[in-house]
Amino acid sequence: MQDSQFEHSLDRARQGDRTALERVLVRSRQDLRRYAEYHCAVNDVEDAVQESLLLVSRKLVSLREPAAFASWLFRIVKRECNRLKRATRLVLMQPSDLEEIEGPHCPAPNGLVRDVARALARLPAHYREAILMRDLEGMSIAEIAEQLALHPEAAKARIHRARSLARQYLSDSDACPLPALPVSG
Nearest-5° angle of CA 135, CA 141, CA 147? Predict the structure, then answer.
């Protein structure tokens, strides 16, 4: 399909033409798949593409600037890939999974990764999600607010509270104490 034909189909689809929408989605699918293969885990590519196409079909009428269609499309699939990654991480970080780790009850003093994972696992889900979006995925406050359907100030507050709780969990005195160092005398 030539670019002028695609632009015409895009305009018609934005006006509610189902046939034009189908043409836009069929053409966009190839680009979405290539982009998702780069940004998603191998098992999540097709799911990310399908969810992205579904969202595009629902929200295309609200796209204000047709020239921004390609960047909007890629942003949708990247967010979907991130959502799927986050879902996988949250499943892997459930407390029941942490309890099955072999070894001593207290991690070695250099087990910072384990300590942080435990602190994050102790956070309520809404705090954990916000802190992972900000600190792990590098999303902006505006993106987090949009993703979580919050006001930007509420998103900031949620991230601040999540970080505070995580720091508190990491510094709990009843957590595994460090072994005493020998005193040289």
Answer: 95
